[in-house]
Amino acid sequence: MCHFTQRNSTLSFPKICNIFWRFHHTSISHLCSCSKTVSDEKYQDPFQLGRKDLKNLYEDIKKELLVSTAELKEMCDYYFDGKGKAFRPMIVVLMARACNIHHNNSREVQASQRSVAIIAEMIHTASLVHDDVIDDANSRRGKMTVNQIWGERKAVLAGDFILSAASVALARIGNTTIISVLTQVIEDLVRGEFLQLGSKENENERFAHYLEKTFKKTASLIANSCKAVSILGCPDPKVHEIAYQYGKNVGIAFQLIDDVLDFTSCADRLGKPTAADLKLGLATGPVLFACRQFPEMNAMIMRRFSKPGDVERARKYVLQSDGVQQTTYLAQRYCHEATREISKLRPSPEREALIQLTEMVLMRDK
After folding, report:
1. Domain that holds residue 225
2. With contact defined as beta carbons under 8 Å apart, do 114 and 93 qualify?
3. pLDDT of 245-279, one tens digit each?
4. 277: exposed, middle or buried (C-beta count within 10 Å: 0-12, 13-18, 19+)?
5. Which top EC class is named for this enzyme in its record (predicted)?
6. What CATH number is attached to the domain comprising 312?
7. DSSP-derived pairing of the beta strands 143-144 and 139-140
């Protein structure tokens, strides 16, 4: 799993490594291969530790979405039903506490830091609403999408409204640095969507393109939200960089595993159709790695799997190749880097929970 063994490949593992590590890291230490993260502290359940700070999270979000129009309110509340994983807010509050403890041993989350967690979830949900419109998706989190129930036009407006409410909440924090950091997320989401609409002919460029898109569409929100709470809790720029790098690496790993699950999980478990990316014409990690063993996939990638039978044939190639394993290994590398970064902070239950979270990202099945 940890090595590429095919001889007739035009894209070697060192080339891929150079591309994604050079793109995402200014420096990188030697990482151990495929071993589990071992924490010196007692196991800390991230969800248990973050529960106190996330209590009434969705009720507080709904308070930010107070509107007079009943239909708009219903649409905005639709995904804030408390049934989501709240993965992003949980990382944010754990990072806030870890940075506060590192700075002055304070174990309390500031009101402004909790606001960042709320804003992060609002931006994320607005992006899901817009993504479902762009992708013409039918289901999300095991239920019908907003665009399928209310139509595309109203769905776009609902996503816009959630974003505007998040912007108001962000302005209320009253810190121009935090505003700058979190508005970068919205810019990255748009740029990431445009990257997803394009493709590259060169295989090396294609992989770098994929990782850049993954950062902008998924990891930027986590990275910049972590950075924002670190700024609010600690004046040290080194801590801000640690928080940012942790969020970036975990975010990329999260999406890589999401791309793996599109091939390995069943639709009922995932809460959305499988092979969805192929049907949208997208070549994700498992496909790009599989293409090394099955060069005939190049033509399918360039035509975005548009010919009859392309999706089924590409899925078959991926499952016959080591694409899933190699993408999983790549996610492990990013999680190891996230652990290396967060380990620079002073030991605390929250720091250990963030380390444990990297394992949960790798082990998740939905």
Report:
1. 50-363
2. yes
3. 999 999 999 999 999 999 998 755 656 567 889 99
4. buried
5. transferase
6. 1.10.600.10
7. antiparallel
